[in-house]
Records
---
Amino acid sequence: MGRTSAEPVLRLRPRWRSPVIVFPALAAGPALLLAGVVEPSATALFSGFAATAVAARNLVILRRGVTEAWPDGLTNRLAGRQAEVAWEGVVRLVVVPTLFGRLVQAEERDGARISLAAPRSGLVMHSPGFGERLDELTRMPGGGRAPVPVHTPALGRIVVAYLVQTTLALAFVGAVIVALLT
């Protein structure tokens, strides 16, 4: 992509949630791993490993993740990988419900998707003003290009995602309690 300016028009980074949420979420994985080693438990080991891996990835994204919008395209760095896509190649922005929040992906003409570092809304990290930042991002294409359309999942998919998230969260909390009490 040929840059038309030295600085991006929009630079988005994920931010920490409240420490009341972040620290217990980040401490749960290692605590479960320890509990699974002290009192051998496959459930505690698996849950602890998974929670630690997710927490480590989130820390990398928080530290290094950035989405930059330029008049000619997007540059995105997420957990060490960097991707660039011209606005002409972006078909739409897709809001994806995740285990504990939402993220945005840029869908290219060939169907490939790039998960953006921001805007995000999740348990550990978020972008203040998720909707406003997403609207701002859709209007970024320069050179008289039309705004990028946004696709959000149907209400049924959102409800199912939240039910699955709630079930998994309760199962995780149950695994922590069982690991600590036995």
---
Amino acid sequence: MQFFGGTEISPSPPAPTASGNNAHMLYIFNRNGVALLYREWNRPLKTLSPQQDHKLMFGLLFSLKSLTAKMDPTSADKGNLGVPQLPGQGCSFHSFRTNTYKLSFMESPSGIKLILVTHPKTGDLRDSLKYIYNLYVEYVVKNPLYSPGTPISCELFNKTVDQYVRGLG
């Protein structure tokens, strides 16, 4: 079966970009900013409550998407800064890097946002995010017991994502 990006879920996911577990956190938000999933692996410092952390991350994404759309050199119609745009509208970003982490981002056509925070030297994770999205479609969206817009509690999805992300570089 083909999903986002024309790829299939296969027993062989995209190859890790480096050795070891360099993943820190994974967020999945719906189009309304509701956190559907949050996982952390290597996060030694916890300064915010989960609700504050989710609001801060979604606000960061909203601001970066708005900023990159307004800086788009190919579009004359930029609208007002801060006005939400539809997925795929305007210019967007895939990742950014600081001296302590790298944030990789993908938004599906349905507005599902996947954010993976990793070690700063981690390579391109676009294929990995597409693979995680395909897992989401296969194990969560197609699950008749799942109610859209609620936190993900599918054990098979959680286990598969944990196993895959632990192998990422």
---
Amino acid sequence: MAEHDFDEDTLRALADEGNETALDRLVDLADDRGDLDQLSELLDEGSEHAGRLLTRRAVENRDLRELQRLSDAGSSDAETELERLLSARHP
């Protein structure tokens, strides 16, 4: 699949109108830039994709507080990963 450069303002307008694919593309752009603030804002807008990406980063960093924050924001993935990490037994 070819990579396309889309105008971020256009993607934002489409996402604001309820287009989930445009919202996911905004998430991908923020993730590519490493823009955690933007990812968090997109999560607050209801993007499950943003929640998954933020959860992945928090798990990689073993950031329990971030996982709790994401879980509180409604990310079921973060809740699952938080419970998994807290339940893991270490020798």
---
Amino acid sequence: MNVLFLALGAGRRRAVVEESAKVVANGGAATVVIAMAKQWKNETFAPGVTVLDSSLLHQGELLWRIERLMVYRGPEFVLKRAFGRRGGSAVRAYRNKVADRFHKRAFLPVHKRLRKDVSSKLLAHHINRAPRPYEWIVVTDTRSMPEAVDVLDELGPDNRIGLAWSAEHLS
């Protein structure tokens, strides 16, 4: 059994860790999609559980690649060249004080407003590309529910993926 856990809100972290471990222990495969890795840093997943940060799904998008080039890679290249050996500390300071703040406060809100349906499309694309087809989507918190509905809409009526609130309900 191949199960995709949608854990975008990180509301039931302990349950997600335990349920994904149980799926793997029963011979299945478990993938946990999270929104913010920082919220999950204290959790240890069982070996065999794949953790996928949802921001990684966006990396191939043109807007994200342009932002990476203009806000991160370009200025960091210039800082490394300008400061020589001290370039590493200048890059870290720039990333912490300028680039990351711009990304969180300006880019992400605008991107979410302009491209509301992108996450569900990217997640549906991930599901379609999976080497082993997913049989279940487990929605682990309330923040993940609208995303799960959008993903199922993107997949279309022909999909055979079941939807559950907990791995306890899988058959």
